[in-house]
Amino acid sequence: MKKIILTLTALCLLGIAYAQAPELRKKGNATQFYVENQPVLLLAGELGNSSSSSKEYLSDVWPGLKALNYNTILAAVTWELIEPEEGVFDFTSVDHLIESARQYNLKLVLLWFASWKNAGSVYIPLWVKTDYKRFPRAEDPGGNPVEILSAVSEENRKADAKAFRALMKHIKEVDGQEHTVLMMQIENEAGILNTPRDYSPEANALFNGPIPKELSVYLQKNKNNLTPELTKVWKENGNKTAGTWEEVFGKSRIGGWNHTGEYDWHDMYYYTEELFMGYYYARYIGYVAAEGKKEYTIPMYTNAWLKGPDYPWTGMHPGGGPLPSVMDMYHCAGPAIDILSPDIYVPHFTEIVEWYDKLGNPLFIPETRGGDLGVSRLLWCLGEHNLMGFSPFGIDRSAKGAAVNTVDPLAQAYKLIAGMQYLILANQGTGSMRGFFVDPEHASQSFVLGEYIITADLVKPRTYASMGAPAPTTVRQVQESESGGGLIILMPDGEYVVLARNVNVRFAPAVPGELPYVGVAKVYEGVFDEGQWIPGRLLNGDQTHASIFTGTGLKMNTLGIQRIYLYRYGKR
Question: 378 and 345 share a domain?
Answer without folding.
Answer: yes
